[in-house]
Amino acid sequence: xxxxxxxxxxxxxxxxxxxxxxxxxxxxxxxxxxxxxxxxxxxxxxxxxxxxxxxxxxxxxxxxxxxxxxxxxxxxxxxxxxxxxxxxxxxxxxxxxxxxxxxxxxxxxxxxxxxxxxxxxxxxxxxxxxxxxxxxxxxxxxxxxxxxxxxxxxxxxxxxxxxxxxxxxxxxxxxxxxxxxxxxxxxxxxxxxxxxxxxxxxxxxxxxxxxxxxxxxxxxxxxxxxxxxxxxxxxxxxxxxxxxxxxxxxxxxxxxxxxxxxxxxxxxxxxxxxxxxxx
Length: 279
Fold this sequence. Notes:
By secondary structure, the protein is mainly β. It has one domain: CATH 2.40.50.140. Helices cover 2% and strands 24% of the residues. It has one helix at 208-213; strands at residues 3-5, 17-19, 34-36, 61-63, 76-82, 91-96, 101-105, 115-116, 129-131, 140-142, 144-145, 152-154, 162-168, 171-175, 181-185, 189-192, 268-270. It has a seven-stranded antiparallel sheet, with no helix packed on it. Strands 7-6-5-8 form a four-stranded antiparallel sheet, with no helix packed on it. The protein is globular.
């Protein structure tokens, strides 16, 4: 998909750059593969804001996407590529030979009419899924499982991918888009190819209203707040905080490491921060 820029015939179109979605399906999604989606507006069950900067947005239908790809050795044909308002990537509607339909994440270079299959060992072709044990080293993959049978969790956003770079014992070594190198069990499933819509990050929405339609409310900097509202707040005139950057709750931010997950540290061979240090 290419980018589409607009002439500034209105103020909101000045600088506007959007994804050209003219080749996508223009109808409604398959009703049996959709669910209702309740707006939460960043509130918990008592109505208090627990996630700032969220609220509003256009009404959405949730498309049930098959991240597990557990229907083995049954070929499926790609019927159409669709827009999904719940994610940055596009999704593909596939129909299996037995008539069942499913949505999957659409990889790049997957076209209408192509055949995809999930199997223990299959062709290295975009959209095909198989365990990492059956893949050749160097394969570009997405929708990678971390736990067998749980469904893909890694590399699902638009344009992302991971690379299968080696084997060690019963583990596969995966290099992620962030630069992190980590181990995943070889029995875990992954899908061939990179995720569609790589130009998603190059969009320029042109006006605040377009972000509000996505459910994003304005971000207010801590340095313009009062001391009661934020640790950076207060001071006479314009001040820039006067302390190390922290969240409203006092935890370090803007680059400081806050990871505290010792149970999965053993699976990370090289941190994503290693590149920044020149290692």
